[in-house]
Structure to design on (250 residues):
């Protein structure tokens, strides 16, 4: 089901906690960027959860597979105008992370941020190349890569599309449930608002074979993660403040 203009994107961020910010003086464009990336990282962690809960085989890095799900859901769930906005935010999120961390950590489980940037642009472009050529050009996707992007999207649709087909249910379900919610700042409030709305929407369409907990709590760092021991996605309340700090100039 296509959703109206809202939020989404893809960003995996783990950086030291920032001082708490008041969102009263934050621009609407920056808030939209933060909302998009909060939802994007939630999709990314949902990918980890589905890999665990459904026992999905992963041939390669699991972080890459979770990145793919995030942009795949943006394309699948949102109307074109919304999806384009969210794809831009996703790309700028990775670009901002690359600029903030100039040293490439080759041993990390995540790929280099610039590579994740181009992977995101490529997959989004490949989902609808006839309508998104201007997006690919604007975001600097080289023609040498763009040629293969439709095939990359088809691979994503065959893998993640098949996995999602397993949990689609006409009556939906209540298998995404909330655990701890501790909101202590503006960023935490925004995180709770975005994630709660998304959980409600997902529960209308999908039913998992077991419950997946969603918690929104302070972590003393800007982070989000999936805990397979508890079958729980944790969204840290500090994450939104860090996103405000790294938002591009609008």
């Amino acid at each position: 089901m296509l959703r109206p203009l809202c939020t989404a994107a893809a960003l995996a961020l783990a950086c030291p906690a920032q001082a708490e910010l008041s969102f009263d003086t934050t621009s609407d464009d920056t808030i939209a960027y933060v909302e998009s990336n909060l939802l994007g990282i939630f999709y990314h962690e949902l990918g980890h959860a589905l890999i665990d809960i459904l026992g999905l085989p992963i041939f390669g890095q699991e972080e890459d597979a979770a990145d793919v799900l995030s942009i795949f859901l943006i394309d699948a769930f949102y109307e074109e105008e919304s999806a384009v906005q969210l794809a831009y935010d996703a790309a700028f999120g990775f670009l901002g992370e690359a600029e903030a961390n100039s040293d490439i950590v080759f041993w990390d489980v995540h790929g280099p941020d610039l590579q994740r940037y181009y992977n995101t642009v490529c997959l989004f472009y490949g989902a609808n190349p006839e309508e998104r050529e201007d997006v690919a050009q604007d975001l600097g996707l080289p023609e040498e890569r763009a040629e293969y992007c439709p095939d990359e999207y088809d691979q994503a649709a065959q893998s993640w599309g098949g996995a999602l087909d397993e949990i689609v249910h006409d009556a939906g379900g209540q298998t995404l449930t909330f655990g701890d919610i501790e909101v202590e700042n503006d960023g935490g409030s925004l995180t709770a608002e975005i994630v709660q709305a998304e959980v409600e929407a997902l529960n209308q369409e999908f039913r998992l074979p077991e419950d997946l907990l969603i918690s929104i709590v302070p972590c003393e760092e800007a982070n989000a993660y999936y805990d397979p021991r508890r079958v729980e996605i944790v969204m840290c309340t500090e994450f939104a403040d860090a996103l405000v700090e790294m938002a591009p100039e609008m």
User: Anything to note?
Assistant: Confidence is low (pLDDT under 50) at residues 1-21. Residues 11 and 41 are 5 Å apart (CA to CA). The two ends are 31 Å apart (CA to CA).
